[in-house]
Amino acid sequence: MKGNELSDRFLEFAARVIRLVMALPKNPVARHIGGQLLRSGTAIGANYEEARGGESRADFNHKLGIAWKEARESWYWLRLLQKTQLIKPDLIDKILQESNEIAAILGKSLATAKRKKAGQQPGDPSTTS
After folding, report:
1. What's the pTM value of the predicted model, to 2 decimals?
2. Boundaries of domain holding 96
3. Whose CA is closest to 17, among 84, 86, 75?
4. Any idea what the CATH number is for the domain that residue 25 is in?
């Protein structure tokens, strides 16, 4: 996937998060979880865009790492919504899968970026466990 395609995917994810949070019940628990999800779910794309405009490879890696952490956090809050059944499970399933895929994409991109920083090539003995 190219940078613009990822940007669009992260933007669509953020829009889905916003719509989901707006559909949550109006109670203190849902407001808390919704607020956390809203912050993390919309931060992924913003941090990815900052990474794309990074001033150095280290800056790129740092911002990409933040985007990955936000994706993992979003996945957590979505799982918590699913567990608490604050909203119908069928409204969570697809966005939960998308958050998992986004975290995996960013994790792989971050690993590749760190490997490039270290000057390693795929398949180097130092990159395998």
Report:
1. 0.85
2. 3-121
3. 75
4. 1.20.1440.60
Tens-place pLDDT, residues 13-50: 999 999 999 999 999 999 999 999 999 999 999 999 99
Q: Is residue 127 part of a domain?
A: no
Neighbouring residues of 97: CB distance < 8 A, sequence distance ≥ 6 = none
Angle between helices 3-23 and 28-52 (to 10 degrees): 170
**Chain segment 42-95, per-residue pLDDT in tens:** 999 999 999 999 888 899 999 999 999 999 999 999 999 999 999 988 889 999
Residue that the structure tokens 């466990």 belong to: 129
Query: Nearest CA to 77 among 125, 127, 21, 115?
Result: 21
Q: CA-CA distance, 63 to 82, in Å (whole number)?
A: 29
Total domains in the fold of the chain:
1
